[in-house]
Amino acid sequence: MGSWFHPDISLEELMKLIKGFVDILILTSGYQSSGRIAHWDPININKAFQWAFFFENVLRTLSCLDNHQESLQELDAALSELTSDVSFPQGFTHLSSATLTMARGFLVEHFIHALPLRDSHLRAFLMAIIEMDLDELSGVEHDRLSVYLNNLKLQETSFSSVKNRMFCDEDLISSPNLYLDTKEGELKGNSFTKYTVQKLLKRSSAVSKISTIESGLETISNSIRCCSWSEFDDNLFKELMKQNDPPVIVEQLVGFVTWNHWKSKNLSYFLDKRTIHMVSGASMIFSTPKIQWVQVLERLKNSADRSDDDFRDTVELLLLGCITDRWTYFIKHLMSVSYYPITTSEQFQEVCKLLPTGKFQTLDSKQETVNSKESDILEYLMNILSGQLHPLWNVSPVLAAAAIPSWSLLFRFYINELEIQFRGDFSTMRCCSCIEDKKEHNDCLTLASSNHWSILSPKFKNGLINDSLKRYCESWRINVEVKNIMGFEVVPQECVEYIQQYMTSSQYKADSEMALEEVKLYLSGSCTTLENDGKDAWIFDVDDTLISTIPYYKRHGFGGEKRNTTSLETWMKKRKAPALKHTLNIFHDIKDKGLKIFLISSRSESLRSHTVDNLVSVGYHGWTKLSLRGLEDEQLDVKEYKSKTRQRLVDEGYRIWGIVGDQWSSLEGYPSAKRTFKLPNSIYYLS
Residues of the signal sequence (predicted)? Predict the structure, then answer.
């Protein structure tokens, strides 16, 4: 690199070390990149400061050279390129040659601002700071400890004075050189202790102010709650409304009090301490490039111990991320808006008018003015919801109303579901865990109607979702089944809800049973040709043929997300896949006829014990062999691997009478069977 010159180190080597220093700075936050707590002790803190001191020495040496300005410009250009990368931590984007000149001070600041600042963390840090100041004195003072303590005593009065002033003098708080003894920009003497005290006082001031603000907000929030609907109000109005002909004024009063209760409840949500913290977190998270915040949320989503509450919090965080820039406006608006008497039906019609007319894909012109951050957040939210809108019912209604713009696809689905509930119909969405609990869905009384849902019924013909979209999604599904559509990675986002409804409906069950009835007819006509020599064979696929992965996809987008093999295999290891009862019956029928059953799955060989345990636990037993993909099969696609496995059976003299599978890759290729039977599955495609 042309302009850089340093007698001891090249710019390339220096940049590699700077990247390592950034990793150390990340750990000063108190957490590792995995989210686990980072434990610091005085020894490791000293090592971190040695790194920082190294950079100070490099820059100090550089400043003594004739062409140091050109070298600094070259270094800053390289740092600018490094920090502009989308994966670079946003908290360190101001890293520059000036920062590295004061690298130890920069490190002190990040240690002090670790959240939370634990006692052990602070104790280790202060021990390291004191040791460094003592080391600074070792070269010039004989009794360095006495000198250090005397200096602290002399400055004690100054510390107290400054502490008092810092709580009322904003300029003093932000001054970078309050306790910084410098000589040509370097820390010396008692500077580390002084600088640390400055930062601790600044942090204490900020914490005190935040605490005061939180107390004020809590007082306001409690006051609002006290003004909201009480049990006395409820009982009073119930008695008044029991009258045969209640006065109009009573009805209006009921409406007003109801409105006041709703307004108070939502204002309380906006001003709640938890909400404020989440807004702060959302503001920080979504200020980073999309690639970074998506990685954070994906790790949360794929966490093995993730709960429904965690998912609800993620949804809430995404919605808050859409309105962080307008937070104050919403509070002011909600406080200023007045009650206007209007019926629920009229309110709903007003909301429906927000929907743009024309084709379903047409977006309102307002979308053009929305910032890209909001669009990215809404796109991600739509993806993780995958048509399951019930998590939105668990967040504050005013938050959903404020965060979901009328031009968005999510708004259409949201309003459609509101219309279903407004009409008093049952929701078509599954919110229960009946599949995981191995229960019939009609046991779930609150969602019984979804067990009778058929994708062919005109359920939404008078609804808000355009009927052409429904026809499009039905056509897409059919064309997947007949192999006109191949190689798709995800279900079209607008069709995720339809695919989910189909795969969890009685229609899916009926379609599967019809396919297996054909197996019975085929066997009844061909049994006379069986040679009963132990070489008559039948092949089954495993996933979504014998056992169902629907419980997994229920939590992972129902085809709306790209297939995550690691996450899926983690779920498979839990051995919780339920049996597909229609296939379980035909499995035993075929076995009872004397055919040898072979299971050929694209699962990894590492899942053998988990797969066997799962199959046996749900009623499958007596198969001849289970074939899984070994290391030698990793380079083959699914179709090639299964063809190769069938060839081995043929080479061993087996006659393959039939194959049952949910993927075309399980049925095609040479050698095949005399008959193949395809079960429906539109969630994913394996080639």
Answer: none
